[in-house]
Specification:
Layout (H helix, E strand, L loop, with lengths): L9 H10 L6 H9 L3 H27 L1 H7 L6 E7 L8 E7 L17 H14 L2 E7 L1 H7 L1 H14 L7 E5 L10 E4 L2 H4 L1 H24 L5 H4 L5 H10 L10 H4 L2 H10 L5
Parallel strand pairs: 1-4, 4-5
Antiparallel strand pairs: 1-2, 2-3
């Protein structure tokens, strides 16, 4: 970029710095601020807003990385985060993921998976897997959920995810639980998927994988709407259960599946609990 912007059209500046989102040097930003053209001033304001958003995002991530850095800076480099997805649904497995990053890895946008839409989760999941030192999935089946109860099945899925890592962790950060049977020290973090970068990354991988499994179940068991509600007890799902009855992916140990479907959902609706 030359010393002056006057030789560059507004369209060129917009294409380079807004559409292509290239980094704009401070020198060029300063020139934009002083440029008399109204179109350049609009681009300048857009770039400033984008810079402010990015700075806020980096501050958020720096806060999330505090949990990991206390280990990284003490010489413990292999810090695993583990989280699960699928405790609440009426159907489908529980899926857990464990992730280890090289120290000081940072991926913009990583957050609690529940705060992200499906497209953003999918893009982030790809980047997480590319940058992770190791990542692994653990699954507890519907049969295991019914046999053990869903809480214990979630712990089992997390243990399997951790056991599947190709690199042995030195310390484990767990979202809100204590995983039994680990040989390595672990730390339970309440709302860990909002407080720890590596747990948030694990939550994205777990949620993305579980959604993929529910899409496959939608093809195998049409009519229940698994692709849309992912097994949760939405009105659509409850109506499908009334109409079709439970299928193999449904958790028979859950009261909403175990009890007679029609009478149970009639009671649920009349009491207002389903609203």
């Amino acid at each position: 970029m030359p010393e002056t912007l006057s030789s560059h059209s507004i369209r060129e500046l917009h294409r380079q710095y807004v559409q292509k989102a290239e980094d704009c040097p401070d020198r060029v930003l300063s020139q934009m601020k002083e440029d008399p053209r109204s179109g350049v001033k609009r681009i300048y304001k857009q770039l400033r807003r984008r810079e402010n958003r990015r700075n806020s995002e980096l501050q958020r991530l720096e806060k999330m990385l505090e949990c990991e850095r206390k280990f990284w800076w003490s010489g413990i480099s292999r810090v695993a985060g583990v989280d699960e997805a699928g405790i609440g649904p009426l159907a489908g497995p529980v899926v857990a993921a464990a992730v280890i990053f090289p120290p000081e890895t940072l991926i913009e946008g990583v957050d609690d998976s529940k705060r992200l839409d499906a497209q953003r989760r999918s893009l982030l999941a790809d980047e997480i897997l590319q940058k992770a030192l190791s990542a692994s999935i653990g699954i507890s089946s519907v049969d295991e959920i019914d046999r053990l109860n869903v809480y214990q099945a979630g712990l089992l899925a997390m243990k399997r995810a951790l056991d599947g890592l190709s690199v042995e962790p030195e310390h484990v950060l767990v979202d809100g639980r204590v995983v039994p049977g680990l040989s390595k020290p672990q730390e339970r973090l309440v709302k860990g998927d909002q407080r720890s970068f590596v747990i948030a990354a694990a939550s994205i991988i777990a949620k993305t994988r579980r959604d993929q499994l529910m899409l496959a179940l939608d093809e195998e068991y049409p009519g229940y709407g698994f692709a849309r509600h992912k097994g949760y007890g939405t009105a659509e799902h409850r109506e499908a259960l009334k109409r079709l009855g439970p299928a193999a992916p449904h958790r028979r140990s859950f009261v909403l599946i175990r009890e007679p479907i029609h009478s149970l959902f009639d009671d649920w609706t009349s009491s207002g609990a389903g609203s």
